[in-house]
Specification:
By secondary structure, the protein is mainly α. Helices cover 65% and strands 2% of the residues. The chain starts with 15 loop residues before the first helix and ends with a helix.
Length: 662
């Protein structure tokens, strides 16, 4: 037992709290063993292994437990599999290895890999011994691979998790090479090699399997290996040849359809997807694939709404969510908060990325002067990043962005002159903490964001509205610190997004038309011009995607708000317009008149932004030229203030309606 359970010294897991917790469980197990309660001691050893699989003291205690029980075989009864717990399963694997029951031991390690692939379950001496490959029948390794690879093992395995799986992969390589005539072993082994991005080996093993025993599985695995290696046309050729031989695999039809789509040939892929759904309309992958490939072909969000409807009507078809997430990733509002475009935010980024960022933060002397009022939330981002800084607006603009675009009962902001102040009280500390734990700048897809926000359904409206103007600090983790130091506006937009989704869950049993949640969201949509208009619109879109009965109303209200913004855009900057257009386009049930207008407006905003960026680049180049001619004598602070004022002033008014009027 001591030899079998020696851990890998270099990977002796844990550090910090995990190691301390495992040491505590192990010490407790020893005390209980001394009292004679071996089953109780075994449960604590299982806990210790689950916390830190490589702690040497735990393996020593397991050896002692086996000795007290009368040997490793007798100790197996202390870790029954009728209610398996991962720590107990791994302990049992080690005991069975000590008994020489290699097949059972490897199978249990594979089960642990399937459950938590990124933990070092296989970093034990018995699994890495040179003679194990000759002791394992190929059928045993095939079953273990099927158990591990056929579960939730990512493709590819993330780099950080490969060390944990390395001994298991090394064992697979040795067994496959020892049994070159085992087609099934080589085919499934190809799947593990592919996940390690060992592309040449994955292709070679799949070809080896096909030579030994030509058939469907080797062909499928070869196609996967070629696709992963960046050779899509070869993969398609292999798969299409296999479909010509046997067209019964509808999942393979889906793979062919989607591979055509991701390589820019969606129209060719669509024929395969439609062929699959025609063969079996109830197939769990076929119908979602049709919607996904159609979206790849024309970019119409109607196909994403259809995917959402499919997922709601067929909750047993999770592939619809997978396809929806694939097409939503990093797309504004579909999978991530839309970016802020205010001049205040642009200048804030320049300050935060400058060499003097820390000095400016600590000095509290940052100053911005904007030519016109921008959304109060942009000023909130400035204050969050640079406490003590000063932001001054020179004018309001016409029409006045401080005024609601409709009669509202709820306001988040009030103005004293040109300065925006919160019109709501801060949320309770408990509510702020829950929002902090819930908010995220990204999500798998729109229905997932809506569902995630149900955690906020129990909060009162005062708390949900309060957090819009008094957001909590970002979490104290890697992402939270990055957002605080580099992109504070994204965190504020994330908080506001999920707070509005929380409003969308308020009294969800009330019929939409007369509901409190609808009334509040409309007030937020039409309130003083701000990011809150956007996030309220997003919450309404999310509600409509999940409930077809409210779609007509939501589309109409968003269109009205977009038209108000477009009218203002004729005479002044409206930074929320592009986002509102994108949200209207996520209402594809609207008449094409409105969605076409949204596309035209969005194109105009993009052209305008591109023009502004070119102008700013020219100004930066001109400033650099002057600097080379000897103007670098100005103080750094003055340069920063001048640059800030220039950028915050913004470009001249331009846009779709202005050009039409000319």
């Amino acid at each position: 037992m001591d030899e079998l359970h020696a851990g890998d010294a270099e990977l002796c897991a844990g550090g910090g709290d995990e190691r301390l917790a495992a040491e505590g469980e192990t010490a407790l197990a020893r005390l209980i063993m001394d009292g004679g309660d071996l089953p109780h001691a075994a449960s604590h050893l299982g806990n210790a292994v689950a916390i830190d699989p490589l702690l040497p003291e735990t393996h020593e205690a397991l050896t002692e437990l086996a000795t007290r029980a009368g040997g490793p075989r007798a100790a197996l009864d202390l870790f029954p599999l009728d209610h398996p717990y991962i720590g107990a399963v791994v302990c049992r694997a080690h005991l069975q290895a000590a008994c020489g029951e290699w097949a059972e031991a490897v199978g249990l390690i594979a089960a642990a890999v399937r459950a938590e692939y990124d933990r070092p379950w296989s970093h034990v001496a018995w699994l890495t011994q040179d003679r194990l490959p000759e002791l394992l029948p190929p059928q045993v390794m095939t079953q273990a691979l099927a158990r591990a690879v056929g579960g939730a093992l990512p493709d590819p395995v993330p780099e950080h998790a490969r060390d944990a799986l390395r001994p298991f992969y090394d064992l697979t390589r040795a067994v496959v090479e020892r049994h070159p005539d085992e087609a099934q072993l080589a085919a499934i082994g190809s799947g593990l090699a592919r996940r390690f991005e060992d592309h040449d080996r994955a292709i070679a093993w799949a070809r080896q399997a096909g030579r030994v025993q030509p058939g469907h599985v080797p062909s499928v695995m070869l196609g996967y290996a070629l696709r992963a290696a960046g050779r899509p046309d070869e993969a398609l050729r292999v798969w299409e040849e296999e479909m010509a031989r046997d067209d019964s695999d509808l999942s393979l039809m889906v793979d062919i359809a989607e591979l055509y789509a991701v390589t820019g040939r969606a129209e060719q892929g669509l024929a395969w997807a439609e062929r699959a759904v025609t063969a079996d309309p109830r197939h769990p992958q076929a119908a979602p694939a049709v919607h996904g490939v159609r979206y790849a072909a024309d970019g119409d969000p109607a196909h994403l709404v259809a995917l959402t409807d499919h997922l709601r009507e067929h909750p047993d078809h999770p592939y619809a969510g997978t396809v929806l997430a694939r097409h939503s990733e990093w797309q504004p509002w579909l999978g991530v908060v839309d970016s802020a475009t205010e001049a205040t935010v642009n200048v804030l980024h320049q300050i935060l990325e400058s060499p003097d960022a820390q000095a400016i933060r600590s000095g509290g002397g940052a100053k911005l002067s904007a030519s016109a009022v921008e959304p109060p939330s942009a000023a909130l981002a400035f204050a969050l990043a640079l406490p003590g800084g000063t932001l001054v607006n020179d004018a309001a603009g016409d029409p006045d962005p401080r005024q609601p675009t409709a009669e509202v009962a709820v306001r988040i902001w009030r103005y004293e002159g040109l300065a925006a102040l919160p019109a709501v009280a801060p949320p309770s500390p408990e509510a702020a903490g829950l929002v902090q734990d819930t908010a995220s700048v990204s999500w798998p897809h729109l229905p997932a964001a809506y569902d995630h926000a149900v955690r906020l359904a129990g909060l009162g409206l005062d708390d949900l509205l309060g957090v819009l103007a008094h957001p909590p600090q970002p979490p104290d983790d890697d992402q939270g610190r990055f957002l605080r130091d580099h992109r504070p506006e994204l965190w504020i937009r994330a908080v506001q997004t999920f707070a509005c989704l929380g409003v969308a869950h308020h009294r969800a049993d009330e019929p939409w038309e007369d509901s409190r949640r609808r009334a509040v969201l409309l007030d937020l949509l039409h309130g003083p011009e701000d990011w809150v208009n956007e996030t309220a619109a997003f919450a309404m879109v999310a509600t409509a995607w999940g409930d077809p009965a409210v779609r007509a109303d939501v589309g109409l209200r968003l269109t009205e708000r977009m038209l108000d913004a477009a009218k203002a855009y004729q005479t002044r900057e409206v930074t929320v317009l592009g986002s509102l257009c994108r949200l209207v386009l996520l209402c594809p049930w609207l008449d094409d008149t409105y969605t076409s207008l949204a596309r035209d407006l969005l194109a105009a905003v993009r052209r305008s932004d591109a023009h502004a960026e070119q102008g700013e680049q020219g100004e930066r180049a001109e400033r650099a030229e002057h600097s080379e001619q000897g103007e670098q004598g100005e103080q750094a602070e003055a340069v920063r203030e001048t640059a800030a004022e220039t950028a915050a002033a913004g470009p001249p008014r331009r846009g779709l309606f202005r050009r039409r009027r000319d």
